[in-house]
# Entry
Amino acid sequence: MTTMSAIQDLLPHNHCWGCGPENAQGLRIKSYWQGDAAICTFRPQPYHAAGPTHVLNGGIIATLIDCHAVCTAIAAAYQAEGRPLGSEPLIWYVTGSLQVTYVQPTPLAAEVILRARVIEQQGRKSRVLCQLFAGDQETARGEVLAIRVPPAWHAPHLASGVH
# Structure
């Protein structure tokens, strides 16, 4: 399966600060499923700087890895079930743990590319490896334990009829 649309754009009611298209103040990353991996390209802005203004902030890097990895787990689960992304019942994952290794400073002026794939899937848990590159240099990597939650968890106000 390869997606022409971003994974995030195929998941309704996503208000996440890092990856939610419905959060105008967020990073609004876009991840694309390609085979057994997901790719995301992100262009940092000057306000994403760390203390030194030429380096990308570590918290932004962690958010990019976290959100891209969770979206990768979601896409992989849809693929495993042979269903289109965003089809009902919704598949949703949350972060159980996040480990980030900062390999070297990520230049703020460079576009970054994230590559993520599920390395282990067991029951409701998916372990996702995500690498962040600036050019051809790996500058950070992370491992996310993504936990599948019931569809009602994602939008309890929708399940209860309260908007």
Q: What stands out?
A: The radius of gyration is 16 Å. Residues 152 and 158 are 8 Å apart (CA to CA). The first helix runs from residue 58 to 80.
